[in-house]
Amino acid sequence: MFQDTKAPRGEESISIIGAGIAGAWQALLFAQAGRQVTLHERSDAAMLQATSHWAGGMLAPWCEAEVSEPVIVRLGLRSLDLWRQHFPKTPFNGSLVVAHPRDRADFDRFARMTSGHRRLDAASMRDLEPALEGRFRDGLFYPDEGHVEPRRVLPQLHARLIEAGGKLQFNSDANPDDCDGIVIDCRGLAARDTQAGLRGVKGEMIIVETNEIEFSRPIRLIHPRWPLYIIPRADHQFMIGATSIEAEDSGVSVRSALELLSAAYAVHPAFAEARIVEFGSGLRPAFPDNLPRIAVEGDKISVNGLYRHGFLLAPALAELTLGYIERGVIDNEVMPCA
Question: Which residues of the chain carry a pLDDT beneath 70?
């Protein structure tokens, strides 16, 4: 899977374009390795244009195995180690998967397609998440999974980059051809001028606020039409999402909003009284196979196609890029053209 093909690239400076989750991890690891790093971001510090702003932030490689290729699980497991190493306060409270009785066949299929879980009966479910008492007869608990809050952890990544000696330039709409040294392009969909086949997959989300419910971990509801996850955030807020729509328009449709909110109500009726804080959507960059790719062309490297796994895969992809530059190591599953 791995092979050495070239000599290290000395002490060349590193220019990274795109300060979302992919670019931020690239910049951090290169800066910590002693490289001269400049991270360019076209928007301001609020990062409202970034796909990362609308992400769920789940670190769930075992759950993703249900619909993903093995390489996603492999990279995801490595990323868990990197999150723990660099951000030891990251919540690793696990993930909980539930389903209503009528969806039992889909629930059992999910269990068969994934690993790293244990089945909980109703009593164990109550002990794990008291708010779900009496709601589900059993569940699947993935104890080693975690989650981050994207809008809080991304500024932390940027701050760590600066602490490591790197530079961060907001409102810098850099072009790969105009940057010095080695250029790592993490522009997402904006890189379609150089990365053929990229498409946008819309992910919609709703943030609600209620102090009537408390969860300690992401809850996934298995459903044949609208699978759902509910992710706890600070200040009694919850992120509700799971839509993946083959469209590149912005905003949240009425249908999606109704389905997401109905599914949340099906998990716990107290969501009916929650206050809606925000609707939003982001376009996830994806190649036709929905797999990530590190493409190398001379001094230009593109890291793209993270699809719906940005926060899960970004640390491992940054480590692979660093290994390629520093030691000439190639991961053939992710860097087929290097």
Answer: 1-10, 337-338
Instruction: Give the C-alpha separation, 335 to 325, whole Å.
Output: 13
pTM over 0.90: yes
Looking at domain 2-64+149-192+288-331, its CATH architecture is 3-Layer(bba) Sandwich (3.50)
3-class secondary-structure state, position 197? coil
CATH 3.50.50.60: which residues of the chain? 2-64+149-192+288-331
Provide the pLDDT for residue 11. 74
Q: What does the pLDDT read at residue 336?
A: 81
Predicted local confidence at residue 338, as pLDDT: 60
State the pLDDT at residue 7. Answer: 45
- CA-to-CA distance for 216 and 131, rounded, in angstroms? 10
Phi, psi values for residue 52, rounded to 5° = -60, -30
Contacts made by residues 255-264, CB under 8 angstroms, sequence distance 24+: 256/204, 257/204, 257/206, 259/225, 259/226, 260/204, 260/205, 260/206, 260/226, 260/228, 261/206, 262/226, 263/221, 263/223, 263/226, 263/228, 264/208, 264/228, 264/230, 264/238, 264/240
CATH 1.10.357.10, domain 95-143+199-286, yes or no: no
